[in-house]
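Feature request, filed as a ticket because there's no other form

It would be nice if the structure record came with a short human-readable summary line next to the tokens. Right now we just get the raw output. Example of a typical job, pasted below so the devs can see what we mean:
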Amino acid sequence: MLDLLVVGAGPAGLYATTCAGLRGLRVGIVDSLPFVGGQLTALYPETVLVDVPGQHRISASRLTRLLAGQASEARPRWLLARTVQQLETDAQGVRLAVVGAAAAGCEASPEWIEARAVLLTSGIGAFRPQHASAQALEQAAVQGVYLLRPPGAGEIAGQRVLVVGGGLWAASTALALSQSGSEVWLAHRRERLAVPAEVQAALQAGRVRLLPSREVGQLRVVDAGLRGVCLDSTRTEPPLDLMTDALVPCHAFVARPALSAPGLVLEDSRRVQVDRTMATSLDRVFCAGDAAGYAGKLPLLAAAFGEAQVAVSQAIARIEPGRRPFEGFSSHHPRPEPSPEYPAEPPALGPAALPISE
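Raw output as currently delivered:
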């Protein structure tokens, strides 16, 4: 059983994981995305932030890498590309049913994670691809279609891969997959990609073939496996047939409403009601960051970091009655040894193939 399970790997969740590690907790962190960063990565990775303490100007992607590296020192159990479907509490702790992306042709089965306390840092909600329509979800059952998660390099090594999308996530995914020896195409609806100049230069200098003004039409499926894709033109050109083994849609993300559970009182349609200790209406369940609601709430990163620290400290006092919320400054205590159960490997960071923006 974990001491603390953090739901949401955005900035508040990553910092909460760091705080939990500093207090010697066995911590896990779950997120619906296959990479960390939440809004910072999914919505505006190249946006320059100017209100982060100690950082005059820092890109969202750079901040994500710093937070993830710091959180990795706690050796958490990383549970990425998993969505929380159910939350139950009892006198011993909290149980959550989490579901990962289903394998082709299979229905995902929930995995029950037990923790002594839970911290909700789910931000504005769970992200999913913007164009995950019923038809797209049906296509995801085809072997070789990676709708809800990008494939690993080992899964598609030497294959013919079509990446679809016009933003940074699509471009970085195409660049990363091209390093595996695969033949990679990048199709997008418009004439130009919405990416920084250095990313465009990396694509032109690399092995990725660009297909502008194209969108996915019909899939050619043989024995439940992908064999090709017909790309329709968004202009006046005829359709283009590609022989492909893998299709990787990388569209923009939208957020679903925050997690709800019986007895969990909401402040409004997006936020969970908390008291001054960041406790919710459910025992052993705390909330911080954009997901938390209270009078005078400020949806700022600096405030979220403070809320995460308070929530972790109060969770410790709840699950270990002999401990105080505040036990002194970190500089006055030796750093606790991280749990050896989980490796100290950094999680997926989204555009890992790209240079870090300062």
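Something like this underneath would help us a lot:
The helical segments are 11-22, 39-42, 60-72, 134-139, 153-156, 168-178, 197-205, 301-319.
The chain has eight helices and 20 strands.
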